[in-house]
Amino acid sequence: MSNVSSNIVHVIGAGLAGSEAAWQVAESGVNVILHEMRPVKKSEAHLTEGFAELVCSNSFRSDDKEYNAVGLLHEELRRAGSLIMQAADKHALPAGGALAVDRDGFSDFITSAVQGHPNIEIRREEITGLPPAEWDNVIIATGPLTSEPLAKAIQGLTGVDALAFFDAIAPIIHADSIDRSIVWAQSRYDKVGPAGTGADYLNCPMNEAEYNAFVDALLTGEKHVFHEWENVPYFDGCLPVEVMAERGRETLRFGPMKPVGLTNPRDPEVKPYAIVQLRQDNALGTLWNMVGFQTKLKYGKQAEILRMIPGLQNAEFARLGGLHHNTFLNSPKVLTGDLRLKADPRLRFAGQITGVEGYVESTAIGLMAGRLAAADAQGRDHKHPPGTTALGALLHHITGGHLEDESTTLRSFQPMNVNFGLFPPVTITKPEGVARWRGPEKGKAKKLAITSRALEDLQAWL
Fold it and tell me: Does the structural domain 168-325 have CATH classification 2.40.30.260?
């Protein structure tokens, strides 16, 4: 393939968004050159050279397409021909109402598919500055771990500093080191999801004294000390457990350690004061990750504190928690509605670098960037997905829809998961014969109306 051609799309980065973007372009019949710096240069968080490696949790979160915005996005991606969702469904693990995957099988599937596509050429190399001028159709999907030379080049071009935050990685435990005489298997509210049975999580119960001792240890444990340049805010959807503990002694009990929807079969009359959940991390069931337990504790103290949790007193860790530095564009300021960089329209951006948060959200922006780039290469128009869809709502958010007052955008734009708050309002009617209609039932009806409208509008767009 030649570099000088409007019929070639260059994709930089082979993570979730980059792999999805490259796949969408190639499936449309357009040639792709996919540039991935690993293993020539390693990132701060990746362990392998495989494509779409999951560096944090192995969960894609809820798969409920009727009452959950994330589950709706799953379904929209499936219907749009997403490679990432195809891989996730093929390598699904039991996880209650969530869609969790065997991370190695998932990455291997995507790597094989992308490498085997006749329209995709792989180049293992780092792009250390702005793409060459002759590359006239480029997707930058380098994620939250964008290499410093490329990040600086982008900042210099836009004239607007990127925002930054830290994303914390949860520990992973060897299954045979978990005390099964203490923990029990149960999904919250016994919910059965994809590949699940209703008993998909391992639950570690704590009484009040154990919980308070654990919180005290989190508060006093030695933590990573930030340099001045690292002093940036966390994303609220992925706070380290010790940061949550600092925000109030009961915060963890209303977060990842909430004891609701679970009953200890060994002592059903006594409700645990708090519960730590473990979720299966690989197909063999030999690894389990700690749900919502991202941490910045130093390794020397981390294992000791985590072994205070009942059932984990002898835990052996396949990976301890850690931190990596994330960067993202101030997208409403610097990107157009079709993900182009205003300062250089030949460049599109996709994935977490655009200011979406989460695996499926990154995939979604990759899918849309790929379709838009392919349309450009083929000289055809491509309409945006309607704002009533999860795809459209995300696109609208990161390209300016989150605020009406543009003067405050620079300060307030932050990474966002897909949620029902991003969708246009929907009108629902009280059922006949119902005198009072409010609370949970009305809320469920509203969510169902939003998801039903989204899938209908998506089908018309597709």
Answer: yes
